[in-house]
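[agent] plan:
  1. take the single chain provided in the ticket
  2. run structure prediction with default settings
  3. attach structure tokens to the ticket
  4. add a short note for the reviewer (M.T.)
[agent] executing step 1
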Amino acid sequence: MIDLNFINNSVALIDRNHGLLSITGDDRLRFLHNQSTNNIQGLKVGEGCDTVLVNSTGRNIDLVSAYIQENQVLLLVSPHQNKSLYDWLDRYIFPFDKVAIKDVTKDYKIFTIVGEKSQELLSEWVENEFLNSPEFSHKIVNIEDIEVIITVGCNLKLTGYNLIIPQEKAPQIWDKLTAKNPLLLTDEDYQTLEIMQGKPRVNHELMEEYNPLESGLWDAISFNKGCYIGQETIARLNTYKGVKQKLWGIKLKGSIEPEKDNIIMVEGEKVGKITSYLPEANFALGYIRTKAGDIGLKVTISEVEGEVINIPFIRHEYYQPNSQNDS
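[agent] step 2 finished; step 3 output follows
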């Protein structure tokens, strides 16, 4: 089991297994703005954000990170979703749109650095002023004659950075990073971090059974932008406070077998179901009916007692006009 306290006080390096799409053309910002939940057209070169791709009824497809570059938008997508998202986005390109999409997953490697000492690992090549920039800031840096895209943030609510590197140059960068003796983690370890932080994952928390508001992805949604696919449903849920279930963390007092029983109960009544489970930590993520309660709620799963807790990656609150919550 990953020691999160150790990672927080040290530095870890992960070879990520995520997809990467490139969107080019003069209409690239407008196109992505119209296909996802966040305010893409409000971003400048060197900035970025999380945004959700949803279907026509506002249901989750994927949570992606968009990075605005001079001549393209890079989309970091969930593992194994690059082909399906490429096909999904491509169907919305019309003949006169100046937009092109390319799946560049195999052209790049993504190395993620996590932990409070991440800056120390990178400081030989990158100035601290940039490393202290807002999340999603990114730029191209030269590491011993190799061009590397560095992003601020590791797509978790943890200190960290992503390095996006041309595939053929990746082994050289890996050797330079590992020479500084970071803790080496696997992609499976990164998935564990996602669960511990409460980041929704495709085929678990990110399914068409749920919408982004239920998934707590309010930070990835703009309520002031114009129309986009699924916008009407999401706006209505916010306006009328219609979120009927919410994603939470659940700390359990013992182990469970989710493949046999994933039902969340309160006083003998079914109130939701778990979507991810870490047996080493007796920790689960799950959707619970809004009316049942939230943080501090006592629940049982397979007769094992548990308590609903907050998780860092998500938040649950309704957007109010003129508030500071909008992107």
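[agent] step 4 note for reviewer: The mean pLDDT is 94.
[agent] ticket updated
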